[in-house]
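Changelog entry

Holo records now carry the ligand SMILES as an explicit input line rather than a separate metadata file. Below, a converted record for NAI, shown in the new format.
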Amino acid sequence: MGERIAVLGAGKMGEALLSGMLRAGRPATDLVVSVRRAERGEELRERYGVDVLPLADAARAATTLILAVKPQDMGALLDELAPHVGADRLVVSAAAGIPAAAIERRLAPGVAVVRVMSNTPVLVDEAMSVLSAGTSATAEHLDRAEELFAPVGRTLRVPEAQQDAVTALSGSGPAYFFYLVEAMTDAGILLGLPRAVAHDLIVQTAVGAATMLRDSGEHPVKLREAVMSPAGTTISAIRAMEDHGVRAALLAALEAARDRSRELASGQG
Ligand SMILES: NC(=O)C1=CN([C@@H]2O[C@H](COP(=O)(O)OP(=O)(O)OC[C@H]3O[C@@H](n4cnc5c(N)ncnc54)[C@H](O)[C@@H]3O)[C@@H](O)[C@H]2O)C=CC1
Ligand SMILES: O=C(O)[C@@H]1CCC=N1
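Structure line, unchanged by the conversion:
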């Protein structure tokens, strides 16, 4: 059997991965999807030309299974899936919080599990996808899992113990930047700019700053220092941020996200 990939659960992440694999040149005939609602299945079949199959059939048809359901739905998915997953399958979990061992326990002994934390920039081929091997996954399994994510952005391997922190940083990270853009656009309104102008200024500034961060190789402090003139505007803003505890708020926020990822380990709540 050639490499056929099943995406089990095709919501935001599942569909983003599916579209990314197709953009990367994988033929639609190599991809299978399983969803809960028939209309959603029809939509995906029409949009991408992929096969939409019941869970058991998808699991039997594919060599690699990508689990892209919410952590809270993972238990039910694995219960339904387990009888159809042979020991030769590679299972790639995209779920936050769920340890690879929790998935291994519910599947046949020896099934290879790789845990991946990606993020929504999959949609624009700028994802950060971070992989960890479960106990039965070999280097070859990690390579295979990495090949799925490499075309849609950067990949990195970490020990699984770091995955809750990774989830807090890069998994949830896009939302923090969107939130900042929203808040800075509001600030533009406060300063009297039309919303559309404020939005465009902030988005282009975010793109410019992100590109400098990625391409210059400079430390962010150096980049910030180059913006801050003595007794100028920027240091006035930075002092206000320090007064309002923005740095402390970020430390607390990411700690909260990490803790929530740990709580999701049980797949409940
Ligand atoms: N949205 C994000 O930014 C990120 C999400 N993740 C993880 O990806 C996973 C999916 O998240 P989203 O796509 O945001 O959620 P979502 O709610 O958009 O998608 C989940 C999909 O799974 C389907 N589903 C549930 N049980 C199913 C079953 N038994 N069989 C078939 N389909 C089933 C649901 O109908 C839904 O369409 C989660 O575990 C989340 O932690 C990871 C990184 C980023
Ligand atoms: O908010 C969440 O739980 C998921 C995991 C990382 C990003 N979104």
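Spot-checked after migration. Residues 173-264 form a domain with the ProC C-terminal domain-like fold fold (CATH 1.10.3730.10). The chain has a mean pLDDT of 96.
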